[in-house]
Amino acid sequence: MASEGLRLGKYSVGTGDRFAHQAKAQLQACVQALEHGVEIIPVWNKSNREHTIIGSDPVATRVAADAAVKALHWDKPYFCDADHITLNTVDRFLAPCDFYTIDVADAIGQPAPSAQFDDFVKRHSELCGTLRLEGVQDALEITPEVIRQTAAKFLTAVKQAGQVYRKIENAKGKGNFIPEVSMDETDRAQSPVELLIILAAIADEGIPIQTIAPKFSGRFNKGVDYVGDPAQFECEMAFDVAAIAHAVKQYGLPENLKLSIHSGSDKFSIYPAIHRTMRRFDAGVHLKTAGTTWLEELIGLAEADGDGLVLAKDVYAEAYAHRAELCGPYASVIDIDSVKLPTPDEVRGWTSEQYTSALRHVPGAAAYNSSLRQLLHVGFKIAAHMGPRYLELLEANEEVVAKNVTENLYQRHIAPVFLGRDGKGATA
């Protein structure tokens, strides 16, 4: 099942752009990485939910990406991702996108006919017994019952992914898009054994995935650092990378298949572990950074002072007033301590520096407020309702906004993950 046609490079970064104004600034971060000798492929991602909230169309993402590529003379690959699509939402993404994150988390645990997973167990007897994966010390012990239980939990989800994949393939043609399967938005992390069994099922289904997004232990909250044990994460990632390498050889999956780490923005405490694991296995990774760009827009507007700061304060006031409504859809991926949220009246009195210091995610900074940052992360709906007022201020303050977007993506994300550096040249 070698990947034919479009091929995702070894290192790639998902760059969400809620309002389709920062593609050039985001691409500039990849240009900087290339100047340091590392090719990072940009993948502009935006979900159907985000398009619905903002009232935008997937075509706008493509137009912005193409314009940025032309302006910066980028001659490397780049993609537009139909992020977290399902069979019901994929249609509007078929024309403009060439990367598809197929989300089947809702189907995990849905029962499949018992004959279906009985057949899977018989077909994959090679998984039974003691399995040693290259590059990791501990062996995996897999029994027929484990295979059967895992198949019972995941087969329906994989078959649903196959339906979505074939719908895209029928529309775009084989090899004309990058398929990813996402299982991260579920209640429990998948074990390396489960991942290996899932990959066997994906191969059976004929999906030539180039990335897969499992769920790791710990919390990957939106826009803030990882909550959990970085050493445990590193162990899980190593097992997952080894399982992928085994599945590629055993089941003929595309040889460039790699991990996709979702909600990857701002997970600073695990970036060294990601970098070490990539070097240890000579593996690639796809890091999705998504909504962090929208926050850098707010930081840039606040930094610009004047009308920009006034708008940033208005966004906070509205987000605070509607926090229950805004947080509801994201309840499983945010942890906001309401006691730590300043009142809108308090924020009204802030200087530009006070606002940006509270919002900008600089680990160890005394003024940084993770609860405020998470609330504003899910508060992009407020800016969307502002319409021209917000967009016109973005354009009027393009220079300062773009500077923040590029600096955040390169220094805080690309450099530590892909270059093993802190963004200023020092080894991380």
If you had to describe this structure to a student in words, what would you say it looks like?
The structure is a single chain. The chain has 428 residues and is an alpha/beta fold. The protein folds into two domains: 11-290 and 409-419, Alpha-Beta Barrel (TIM Barrel), CATH 3.20.20; 304-396, no CATH class. The chain has 17 helices and ten strands. The chain has helices at 23-35, 48-54, 58-71, 114-123, 144-172, 192-205, 230-251, 271-281, 292-304, 306-321, 323-327, 344-348, 352-359, 370-377, 380-386, 388-396, 398-419; strands at 11-14, 41-47, 79-85, 99-103, 129-131, 140-142, 178-182, 211-213, 258-261, 285-288. The strands form two sheets. An eight-stranded parallel beta barrel has the order 1-2-3-4-7-8-9-10, surrounded by five helices. Helix 9 (292-304) packs across helix 10 and helix 9 (292-304) runs antiparallel to helix 13 (352-359). The protein is globular. The two termini are 38 Å apart.
Q: Label the CATH architecture of the largest domain.
A: Alpha-Beta Barrel
Shape: globular
Largest sheet: spatial strand order = 1-2-3-4-7-8-9-10
Largest sheet: 8 strands, parallel, barrel
CATH topology of the largest domain: TIM Barrel
List key phrases describing it.
428 residues; 50% helix; single chain; TIM Barrel; two-stranded antiparallel ribbon; 8-stranded parallel barrel; alpha/beta; 2 domains
